[in-house]
Amino acid sequence: MDNLLAQLPALIGVTLGVVGTLATTMATDAARWRRERFHDACLRYTRALRRYSQLVAGITAGYRPGATTPPVDPVAGLARLSGEELDRAVTDAWEELCLLADTDTVAAARRMRAAAKRMEGFARVGIDTEFDGDGWDSEALKLRRARDAFYAAARSRMGVKALSTSSSLIHQDDLGGPSRR
Hints:
Elements: H1 2-60, H2 74-82, H3 84-100, H4 103-123, H5 133-158
């Protein structure tokens, strides 16, 4: 009995160590899982919106002198815009993001979706209507800024240092750098 009492503090210490390690591991794994799911949700959302906005840009490419976006046949493009597949991809990504993101990231995502939706109006103009190139440029800038704001919110949520430049591959928003319509 004296042996057991002498070893009891060591047994309690080992037990507490195991429980502490187990709790820490579980908390770390849960945090990593949430971070990875959030990251994946952000990627799915931005990719779905990029496909959507690239389709809109392709439909309007014929109206925009100097556009480097590959042109898309307007009839086929509008059918794809009206189809369920693209809308489902954006909606599914949105739902997942709403489940995993914080208020700031969801608000930024909503603004990015609204900016992309305004761009769709340019693709839906009739052939009898003059294309508003200045309006397109203005809305495209708003979309880029909304995407940058979404990235900033998501990066902040993930604890990643903010970008000091636009996330656009082409545009260097207000820096006088490369630009394309």
